[in-house]
Design a protein that fits this description.
It is found in: Cytoplasm. Helix content is 39%, strand content 21%. By secondary structure, it is of the alpha/beta class. The protein has a seven-stranded parallel β-sheet with strand order 3-2-1-7-8-10-12, sandwiched between helices.
């Protein structure tokens, strides 16, 4: 039997599903490990009322790897209008995930595996833990905040982040389930990003057994560096600054390879009112990356659309596959 290369993607937000979708039809075994620290929008409301892991990032990952028809996926993604007071803002998929979790006695991991089967997923989707997590941040001014949406809205420079279980009555430590750790340890390639450094990527790595596994795995760890900085959080950051933050949180240089976009972003193209979380293109510090032991792959990974700057999914996926076959085959 031919061994399919195993890629594990870790993150959340909008960047993760984009790359997942690009990998779906490739000859690889894809696993998405998805953050459960989101507390905004529909996810946050359901989390508070149903006491369930926030489903939004999981929903988007399911859609990215599903082989259902476009119509079926549109229904799953449909979000009720704000005029529908009772269901305002909720995506149907969020309600389905929450309902299945309740049917499974609160076991979100089992619920997502059941839904993966129903939605004809090519690959695997694992919530990073089976309980809701709260993201905490300490800012450079010494103040602290709890909650992803609060931290993002503060637009302040973050010193460090950590996670705590949301239902922390017994002060236990959050831990990933065995399948998550096994996937990381068995992978040929671990991919972090693209996504918010402090609120999409680090919440997963701050779970002790996840961070430990990512540092110990024999897989190549690839970081897809953001194209634009995030207002308040990574203002004036270089690509090396992003990696420095990741390494400092795990207390070792664990990033092997960094994908860096070097295609300039036209100054007059970005609509900063529409994309109000971003501020400027990420600066380059290739020597800084090399000093941390990183292999640097710099290329044109830029895709301009809707007056915003995004990663070109196909180019990123092609580079990930090049790395995979170049390193392991």
């Amino acid at each position: 039997m031919i061994h399919k290369p195993k890629i594990v993607m870790i993150g959340g937000g909008t960047g993760l599903p984009e790359i997942l979708h690009g990998l779906r039809d490739k000859d690889v075994d894809v696993t998405a490990i998805v953050t459960v620290a989101d507390d905004g929008g529909s996810s946050g409301i359901l989390r508070n009322y149903v006491n369930v892991v926030p489903p939004g990032d999981i929903r988007n990952a399911l859609v990215a790897l599903s082989e259902l028809s476009e119509l079926e996926l549109e229904i799953f993604q449909y979000r009720f209008n704000s005029t529908d007071q009772f269901l305002a803002g909720h995506a149907i998929g969020n309600l389905i995930i929450s309902a299945l979790a309740e049917m499974k006695g609160g076991d979100i991991f089992a619920a997502v595996q059941e839904l993966s089967s129903l939605m004809k997923i090519r690959g695997h989707i694992y919530p990073v833990t089976d309980e809701p997590l709260t993201l905490n941040a300490e800012f450079t001014d010494g103040s602290t905040l709890s909650g992803e949406s609060e931290i993002t809205a503060a637009h302040k420079r973050i010193q460090r982040v950590w996670i705590t279980p949301s239902n922390n009555n017994d002060h236990h430590q959050a831990a990933a389930v065995k399948q998550v750790i096994d996937a990381i340890m068995d992978a040929d390639q671990i991919v972090l990003g693209p996504g918010s450094l402090f609120t999409s990527i680090l919440p997963n790595l701050m779970i002790e057994n996840v961070g430990k596994a990512v540092c110990e795995t024999k897989a190549e760890v690839v970081y897809i560096c953001n194209i634009m900085t995030q207002k308040g959080e990574t203002d004036n950051f270089s690509d090396a600054d992003h990696v420095r933050v990741l390494n400092s949180h795990l207390k070792q240089n664990f990033i092997d390879t960094v994908l860096v976009n070097i295609q300039p972003v036209p100054k007059d193209y970005i609509d900063f009112k529409e994309w109000n979380e971003i501020s400027q293109p990420v600066k380059h510090d290739f020597q800084g990356l090399r000093d941390m032991g990183c292999r640097v792959i710099s290329s044109n990974f830029l895709r301009l659309r809707d007056n915003g700057a995004f990663h070109d999914r196909d180019k990123v996926v092609a580079e990930l596959l090049n790395r995979l076959h170049g390193v392991h085959y």
